[in-house]
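Input.
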Amino acid sequence: MVIDDEAKERQMKSSISYKNCLIRSESFQRETKGSWIPQYTVTCQDAKNETSCVPSHHAQLDKAFWSENEADEFALQDAMRWIDKN
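Output.
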């Protein structure tokens, strides 16, 4: 299976580490050329920086943005707030 450069870039930019958790932004469009819906998954990491296979928290947010980057940024900020509260 060949992964193109765009897919590699998307995979790299969509996950960040924050306070022993891995946040994966998964914003999506319901329709082609439609608005972007922010969504994310948080997975906890252990002391060795290894993630569990089971997500700790998953959220699809009730907002819409014109670009994928805006939706991803909003999702990451919301995930960080959730981590800070929990």
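Strands lie at 15-18, 21-25, 28-29, 36-37, 39-44, 57-60.
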